[in-house]
Structure formats: structure tokens, C-alpha cells
Amino acid sequence: MDLYLHMGLQVFSWQMGKRFSSGEHLMDLFLQFGYGMMDHCRSLIKHWGGGVVILSPRDLNKVQLQKFGRDICSLGGTVMLDPQFYLPYADHHRLREHDYWPKPYQSADFWGGSELTELIKSLLELNSQLGCVDFILPGLYASNVNDDWLARQKALIEEAESINSNNLNLVATVALSEQVTRDQNQIHEILEAADNWSVNTVYLVCEHPRGEYLVSDPNWLANVLDLTAGLRLKNKKVIIGYCSQQMLIASCASATGVASGTWMNVRSFPPDKFRMQYEDEIKQRTIWYYCPQTLSEYKIPFLDIASRLGVLQDVAPKKEFGSNYADILFQGPQPSSVGFTEQAAFRHYLQCLRGQVTNARRTTFNDTVDAHEKALDTAETLLESLHNIGVRGQHRDFKEVVDTNRAALSVLRATRGPILRRYWDRL
Predict the structure, then answer these.
(1) pTM attached to this predicted model
(2) Helix count (H) and strand count (E) of the chain?
């Protein structure tokens, strides 16, 4: 038997829950910090009146972390720190400059010696300096879920628990390769091991297959949902990091929150971004407009085509998404002539996504699944009409993954549906 649930499931509380205005039982959007996001985060947290930013030591030095953390807290927000210890041998200079990073890292000695204790102590101190209530533990990128990886996960949790003098809420990192995420047996090994993890929250990051932005593999997506639902049914909150709009589906597995940001490398999880040779996509300054009702993004010249053919208003955002950042595109002149900025594009994306995220979970499992399927149907119908006239989102077009999400939902409904229906109001 799975894994599916300890039948003594009880209602539980979560320290993070009090920080969100959206409510205890709704899914929340976290801001996944990346390059150039300081002003975006300040503006959105102020506009929202709260929220959580997951800080990135790859993109901020110690002084910046502390100053920016204070800024967010002063605006009514909260910060968490992702230590990004996925690849201990990583040679990214900004990561290695942080005090907590082992110098050097020797795998044979690290996990059985004082180095592990020093890592946790240094991170605890940094989390305290930043005013964090929740302590995201370092977690190794799992190319394979084997005995070594499971033992190190447990060692990290136990070491943190033993020296957590500030009583921070411990959050276990589960970072998975695309191969692991595709393997149902390895997903179930994680779920079985999680019974012995003395944490109530998991920070889940999963590498996308073949570096895809929108994932086309239904088995990968089904397993992400299965892992999320399985952890939730074990009384653990689940934050899924590095997400795009495709992960709105996580509401159907009762995910606590999803994290997203501006550039594609904070909407998907490329492990190589923590190596020096990684080429940031920020060198490609293309501006994209996010259309929430098609779940797709478009380069501005394609909006010109929509305008010429009289369907521009079909891709304008509905008022319910709460964004006016892109209004200028739909006020008459040719969209490419109005000066729609990169700043406006990013804030529009995150504002719309927040509206979609906080509305994704419904009062029952069936209603939540039905709402996502309705969103897929709406997107597909509009996408077909747009494709017929040549308006396409290229590699950010959701048309190719609509069926991926439908298939993953079918698996979730068949495998976890009965027990999620029973305990939905407790999750």
C-alpha cells in the first residue's frame, strides 16, 4: 500500500499560513527571486500588501540579501532563503562567496564530520539575520534516489533539528532530476522515506525534461502531482519552486504554493544555472505578453497580427486577473508601437499568475479538477482560433501541452482521487 495515507490524518496548522491573505485552504504564489528582480518584488509585495519572496544567494551577495530582506519585510512581506546547495561541487563564484558554502567540499568527509554541522549553523545564522521564520534546508540534486541520497536527506533534517535553537520552521528541500521525476518507483521511494522526516514542509524543485519550458511529458507531470499529493496526505505542506503557468495544475494535488519569477530560469529548474558556464537567457531581451486565458505567451509582433485581423481583444486580460500593466497594448494603436516594456511584461505575468493561483483551488477536489479542466478547454478553443490565423506563442504556446495536463489529471483522479475527495477540507 502507498504511501497513500496514514489513516490517522489530522487537521494541522502551518506557520506560513498566517502570512497570506488568500486564506488557509488556497494555493499561494511565492516570488522566486532571480536576476534583476529587486524592484519587481518590492513593487508587487507593496501592491499585494504581503507575500513571500524566496531569495537566491546565486543572485545576491550577503549585503544585498540583508538589505533586500529588510526592504521586503518593511513592505509587509516575508522572505525565505533557498541555500541552493543542489550541486556542492558547483563553481558559480557568487554562490561560493557566501560564508556558508563549504571550502572545499569533500563528499567522503562532509556527511560524517563537523562540516555538515557548520553548514547548518551558518545557514541558521543567515536565516536569523534575514528575519526568516522558515528555514529551507540545503538539499542535494538527486540524479538518482538511492540509499546515499536518502541518507543525506535524513542527515540534513536531523542535524538541523538538533541545533535549531531559534525554533525556525524546518523546510526540507527535494530537488529531482528529470530522470527521477519520470520514474514512479523512485517517487514512491521518496514518499516512503518522508514518513521519517521530522519536517512539516517540503520545498520541491523538479528539473524539466530536455530543458523544456512547458513540459510535454505527461508521465513527468503526473509524477509531480503524485508526489505533491502524497506529501500533503502525510501532513506536509508543499511549495513547488521554479514554476510556470503550467503548474496551476498543482492545485488539484492540494499544493500549498507555487513559486515563479521573471526570466525562464526561475520558471523552470535548470541545475546548470548553478555552474559558471551557464549562459543566462537574460542576454535575449525579447518581450513577451502573457495571455492568461490561453495560458500562453506571445511576442509583441504576433499581437500586431491579432490587431490587424480584428481579434486583439480576444487575448486581452480579463479584469478578474487584476492586472493593468498591459492595458496599453489594447487601447488602439498597433501593439508594437506603444512601448510595452520588459518591466510591465514581467509584472503583468506575475500579477495575472497570482490571480490564477489564488483562484485555482476550490472547496472540493472535484470542483478543483473541474475548474482546471474548464480552463484547459477555454485555452484550447481560443488557441485553435488563434492558430488558424497565424497567432502563435512558439515555444511558449500552451497548445502542445493541453493534453499533457489532461493526462496528468486523469492519473491523479484515478490514483489519488478517492482519498483526496475524502480529506480535501483538511488539506
Answers:
(1) 0.93
(2) 14, 11
